[in-house]
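Internal ticket #5521
Category: modeling
Description: The requester needs a full-assembly model to guide mutagenesis choices. All entity lines are attached below as received. Residue total reported by intake: 657.
Assigned to: D.W.
Attached entities:
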Amino acid sequence: MRLDRRTFMGSTAAAAATLNAPMVMGMAHGKPRVVVIGGGAGGATAARYIAKDSKGAIDVTLVEPTRKYYTCFFSNLYIGGFRDLASIGHTYGKLAAEYGINVVHDWAVGVDRDKKEVALAGGARLPYDRLVISPGIDFIDGSVPGWDVTSQNRMPHAYKAGSQTELLKAQIMAMPQGGTYAMVAPPNPYRCPPGPYERVSMVAHLLKQHNPTAKIIIADPKPKFSKMALFQEGWANHYDGMIEWIGPDFGGDKVEVRPDAMELVIDGEVTRVDVCNVIPAMKAGRIVELAGINDGNWAPVVPHTMASRVDENIHVLGDSSAQGDMPKSGFSANSQAKVCAMAVRAALTDSKLFPARFSNTCWSLLATDDGVKVGANYEATDEKIAKTDGFISKTGEDAALRKQTYEESVGWYAGIAADMFG
Amino acid sequence: MKVPVTAMLGLAFGALSGAGAALAAYVGDPERGAEIFRKCASCHAVGEGAKNKVGPHLNGVFGRRAGSIDGFRYSKALRRMGDDGLIWNGETLDAYIENPKALVSKTRMNFRGLKEHDDREDVLAYLRQFSDDPQNIPEAEPTAVHEVDLPPEVLALRGDPAYGEYLAGECVTCHQAGGSDEGIPSITGWPEEDFVIALHAYKRKLRPHPVMQMITSRLSDEEIAALAAYFNGLE
C-alpha cells in the first residue's frame, strides 16, 4: 500500500483554508473522515468536491487500485484512431497535491459496517464516518455460455478501459483481410447504453481503412438499443454492407462462444470469427456485494442523497447504484457525485443542503466528424431518480451540426476530466 | 404608413394559433423599413449586386443558416451558433436585431439593437423583399415566446455566488472552470448581464442548443442570477 499524501497542514494556503473551515459536527476523533472506494467519474468527483468544498474540514481518502486510470468513455475513440491511449489516461497527483486527498492505491476487499472500517488487500483498515462506494461494474459469471474472465485474453470485453482496450485494438489490426469481428452485446441494464454501438462504429471506421472487405457481426439479446435509428442510419451512410446486427428475432439472445476454437454460436449456427468482443451481462462492482448493500445485482439508493437504502452511512454512485431512470454513464456518475458530496458535507459539517439535481448527456461518434448525442434532466423523488425531460439528435441532421456535436464531445471530455481529476 | 392587419395575417397563415396571432398583430411596412435600414447600411448591403462589407450581405437572409455565407469572416461565436442549428427566420431575426447579444453573446455585430417592436417589423418587411421566396419564408413555432427583452426586475436580481457555485457543478461537467473554449464555449468571467441574457435566451428556446435548452429549462430567475454572479467572479 502506498499513501500519496501531501503535507496538507504545512502549506500556508491550506492553513488559511482550515482557519475558515466550516464548523465540524462533534466527532469523538476530531476531523470527520470520508473514505471513497473507486477513482472513476463517481469516486474521483466525489472525493474532489468533498475535499474542495469542505476546505480541509473533512479528511478524504480515495482508494483506487490503478495508478493510471483510463476512462471507459472515449476508449472507443482510441479504437477508432481518434485518440491515443495516453489522452484518456489520468493520474491522481493533483487530487493529492492540490486538494489534500489521501490517495491509496490498493483494492478494497471488505467493509465492516458495524465498526465503520474498510479493509484493504494490503492489510490496512480505513475507518470512516461516511463511505462512498463507486466501483463501476463487474461481469456476471456464466451470462455468455463458454466465456469467463479467464477467456478475456482470447475474447476481450474491453469494457473496463486500459489493457483490454489495447488488446482488442491489436486483435482488430491483426485480422486477416476479409476477416470477421464479432461482438456479443450485453443485456440491459449495463454501463454506457450506446457504448457497444459506438464501438461497432469505431471498429468499422478502423476496418474501412485497413481491411475494407472485413465483416462485423453483432449478436444482441435486445430487440432495440440506445440511439438505434441514429446508429443504423450512420452505419448505412458510412459502412454500407459491413455490419450485420442480429437481434433476438434471429437468435441474438441464444449465443455461446468457444474461445479456444474462436467460434461464435448463434442459435446453434457456428461461425468462425477472427475477433470476438464479448461484453457479458453486468452487475455492481464486487465490493458492493462484499459490503452487503446490494439488492440483487445493484445497490439501491435514496435519490435525494445517493445514500444506500441499506446503510445510511454509505453512499453508492454511478454504475453500481440502482437509482431509477439515469443511464449508467460517466456523466451520470459525475452528476450523482456532486449531489452525494453535498449530502456528505451537510451530514458531517454545517454546510447547506440544496435540492438534488441531476442531468446526463451521452455523445457517440459514428465516423469522422459525425457525432450524435442524447440527454435528459432528472429529479429526485422518494421512489427513484425520475426523468423529467430530454432530447436526442435527429436522423438526417446536416454535416455542420454533426461536426459541431463531435467537437462538443471533445470539449466535454476535457471538462469532465478536469472536474474529476482537478 | 402602418397597417394593422391581424385579420389579413389570420388568412395568410391560417395555422397560427392564439399566442402567435396575438404577437403578430402588426405586419411591417417595407417602405418605412428601408428608412430604418439606413442605420444598418454602413455595415450591411442588400439588393442587387450587394457584397459583403463589415457585415455580410443580407440577400436571401430569411431561411439561411446563421454564419453560412462562404468567404465572410464571422465571429467564432456566430459560426458556432449556426452549426448548432440557428436559422434566420422572422422570429430569430427579430430577436437578433432587438439585442444581438441575446442570441450570440460574442457576436462582432456591434449594434445596440432596435427596441421598438414596430421598427423591427418594418426592417424585416424590407429585408424580406430580398429573400428568394417570400411565400415560403419559414415562420417560428407559434408557441414560441417572442420577447428577448428581460423585465428590469430580472436584470436587477443580484445573484448569490455561493448558491451559484453549487449550481455550477452542473455546468462545469462541460464548461471548464479554467476557461478553456475547446469544443465548448468558455463561460468564465462574463459580464453578469450578458450571462443572464444568454441563459434566458436558451430557456426561451431562442438559441438552438438542446443541452443548453434542457439545462436552463429548470433554472429559475434567481438561479440564473446566482450562476451569473459565480462565473463572473472566476478568473
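Resolution: model delivered.
Comment from assignee: Residues 1-24 of chain B have pLDDT under 50 and may be disordered.
Ticket closed.
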